[in-house]
């Protein structure tokens, strides 16, 4: 009589579209670590400046914003030194755009791997959010150095209690970027035109977010539309935490939190549904 075969791993279909198998993700945590390491190490490998590119991009962007928006356009920063004002907005915005852009091509960029071996597909976009977090902290360190310089030499600012909410700001940004990213990743498997819209759309969204201007300068007739953007409340709260300037809105943060949770749930549903059949259309 033949012995019954025993398997180390049995892959079963998800019971519903909102299922997230956290035990399975934990089992593959080493793979998650490898993806994060790959994203960090390989990006600037074989470049002359190497990890210095983590600092060059925000520094050059800040300088350009100072010249274009601070000097030529003359947009006020509400008394906040221009380097601090622009760099604080860039650091927060970069985290969202980095996570969103990198997760929005999950299916297309990894179709070769997905079609050959099983592992929880959500590990890929999660690794992008984690590697984005490392880059965020590197750029946050750059902002901290500049911030301490202004505090020590000019006594410009004293951080307030709202800075304790920094982890909340990061979590909300990460959930929004992950949710929106996996939604677009799922949709681009069928509608490739969206890949062009993503890069263009992120740039437009930045101008609809108070990255290069304070919310107080927005005309009253446009203010309701800017406030519909949940990232507005995160960046304003972050600046308020550091400089005491900006809008700190509890209701705004609640709105941003709810928006992040809802868009992540929608993203998981669409991601799980696409995962079942994406190899037939990619």
Q: Could you write a compact summary of the structure shown?
A:
Helices cover 65% and strands 0% of the residues. It is built from 12 helices and no strands.
Describe this structure as you would to a colleague.
This protein has 282 residues and is mostly helical. The chain is 65% helix and 0% strand. It has twelve helices and no strands. The chain has helices at residues 22-27, 29-41, 53-72, 82-103, 106-109, 111-114, 123-154, 166-188, 194-207, 223-228, 231-243, 250-275. The radius of gyration is 21 Å and the shape is globular. It starts with 21 loop residues before the first helix and ends in a 7-residue tail after the last helix. The model has no long low-confidence stretch (mean pLDDT 85).
List the helices and strands and how they pair.
Elements: H1 22-27, H2 29-41, H3 53-72, H4 82-103, H5 106-109, H6 111-114, H7 123-154, H8 166-188, H9 194-207, H10 223-228, H11 231-243, H12 250-275
Helix pairs in contact: 2-7, 3-4, 4-7, 4-8, 4-11, 7-8, 8-11, 8-12
Cα(first) to Cα(last) distance is 44 Å
Q: Sheet with the most strands?
A: none
Helix and strand composition category: mainly alpha
Specify Rg, calculated over alpha carbons.
21 Å
Overall form: globular
**Could you give the order of the helices and strands?**
HHHHHHHHHHHH
Strand content: under 5%
Q: Helix segment count?
A: 12
Number of strands: 0
Helix proportion: 55-70%
Q: List segments where confidence is low: pLDDT < 50 over at least 5 consecutive residues.
A: none
Rounded mean pLDDT is 85
């Amino acid at each position: 009589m033949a012995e019954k075969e025993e398997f180390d791993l049995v892959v079963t279909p998800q019971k519903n579209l909102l299922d997230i198998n956290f035990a399975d993700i934990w089992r593959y945590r080493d793979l998650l670590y490898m993806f994060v390491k790959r994203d960090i190490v390989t990006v600037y490998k074989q470049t002359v400046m190497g990890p210095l590119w983590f600092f060059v991009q925000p520094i050059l962007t800040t300088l350009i914003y100072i010249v274009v928006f601070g000097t030529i356009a003359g947009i006020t920063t509400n008394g906040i030194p221009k380097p601090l004002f622009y760099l604080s907005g860039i650091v927060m915005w970069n985290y969202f755009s980095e996570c969103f852009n990198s997760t929005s091509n999950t299916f297309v960029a990894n179709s070769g791997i997905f079609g050959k071996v099983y592992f929880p597909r959500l590990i890929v976009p999660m690794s992008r959010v984690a590697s984005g977090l490392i880059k965020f902290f590197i750029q946050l360190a750059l902002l901290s150095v500049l911030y301490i310089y202004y505090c020590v030499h000019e006594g410009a600012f004293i951080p307030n209690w709202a800075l304790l909410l920094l982890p909340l700001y990061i979590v909300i940004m990460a959930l929004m970027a992950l949710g929106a990213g996996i939604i677009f990743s799922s949709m681009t498997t069928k509608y490739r035109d969206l890949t062009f819209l993503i890069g263009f759309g992120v740039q437009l969204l930045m101008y609809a977010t108070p990255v290069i201007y304070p919310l107080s300068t927005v005309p009253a007739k446009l203010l309701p539309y800017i406030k519909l953007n949940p990232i507005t409340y995160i960046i304003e709260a972050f600046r308020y935490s550091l400089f005491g300037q900006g809008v700190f809105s509890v209701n705004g943060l609640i709105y941003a939190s709810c928006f992040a949770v809802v868009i992540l749930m929608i993203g998981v549903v669409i991601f799980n549904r696409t995962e079942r059949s994406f190899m037939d259309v990619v």
